[in-house]
């Protein structure tokens, strides 16, 4: 078997991604191109992603992103051997744009089409940077749309959700807290920066679902967000200054504490020695710092891909596509549909 070129198309939220991965005869993977066009600035003034705006932006950005990826990889469209596309989960209209484009390319080229799971793609992204995963590992997936703990026993065959958020996603909590602190959207980066000047122990914000009777691996961030809002309101009502950096740092500490504590507990309980953290919130400096400390103490190998691979992109979709091709999985065919609520 010779090398194969896998094209990955991503359009589940506000990033239009086209990535190309070379799958070697030995199963090795090389990232050749990863082109992302984001519509985040168009959503900023609304404080969150507007589905109609996202769909339209995908339609405009899809073909130019594809062309740039092919150019960057220095390959012709005709050389592509298989096409992978996000079939879900995600925004319904946004998914339709990517899947329609992928079908058109697959039909024109007469090449197999793989509808893939966006969440599996986030985990697969790490293999582009750090190589194959061990037989069993745990993945903590934290972004604006998802907060999940996944037991991965084969990227192409067995990914099981063992925990998830019961309300807001971790990134969503960052975005909402940023809004109430008058910081720009998306809120993760400005809170991360501001928190560096504050004290994470200044305010004891609640750690959701950490009581003895609570679900061991589930998360809840909505109470934390409300608690930050109430704390700020009380200060303002008393005419006192709000120590913004301390609020940001203490909120961030609460998020990082719960995420890392639950992930490490799951690793211990399930006898897993590798933890992968991915998704936009994995770019958070306190989360990766605290995870590194706690994993080192627990003898767990921590893998966090670079921020560019953590946020939504086409390379991660090409990567999971390449894992499916390598495993000899059945292609989806041109009748592929989208599923906005696709479970992992
Ligand atoms: O993975 P992603 O790009 O898109 C989704 O699938 O949602 O994640 C975006 C989320 C946003 O909520 C953003 O505020 C958050 O990731 N984020 C961060 C940081 N950078 C991005 N959260 C905390 N700290 C950061 N440095
Ligand atoms: Zn995502």
CATH topology category name of the largest domain: Nucleotidyltransferase, domain 5
How are the strands ordered across the major sheet?
A: 3-2-1-4-5
Structural class: alpha/beta
Helical content class: 40-55%
**String of helices and strands:** EEEHHEHEHEEEHHHHEHEHH
The distinct ligands, each listed once, are: 5'-O-[(R)-(carboxyoxy)(hydroxy)phosphoryl]adenosine, zinc ion
Largest sheet: 5 strands, mixed
Arithmetic mean pLDDT: 96
Shape verdict: globular
Number of strands: 10
**What kind of assembly state do the chains in view correspond to?**
single chain
CA radius of gyration: 20 Å
Number of domains: 2
Runs with pLDDT <50, length 5+?
A: none
Which percent band covers the strand fraction?
A: 15-25%
The CATH architecture of the largest domain is: 2-Layer Sandwich
The number of distinct helices, counting runs of at least 4 residues, comes to 11
Span between termini: 30 Å
Say which CATH homologous superfamily of the largest domain is assigned: ATPase, nucleotide binding domain
| CATH class (first level) name of the largest domain | Alpha Beta
Features:
binds zinc ion, 2 domains, alpha/beta, 344 residues, binds 5'-O-[(R)-(carboxyoxy)(hydroxy)phosphoryl]adenosine, 11 helices, 19% strand, 10 strands, Nucleotidyltransferase, domain 5, globular
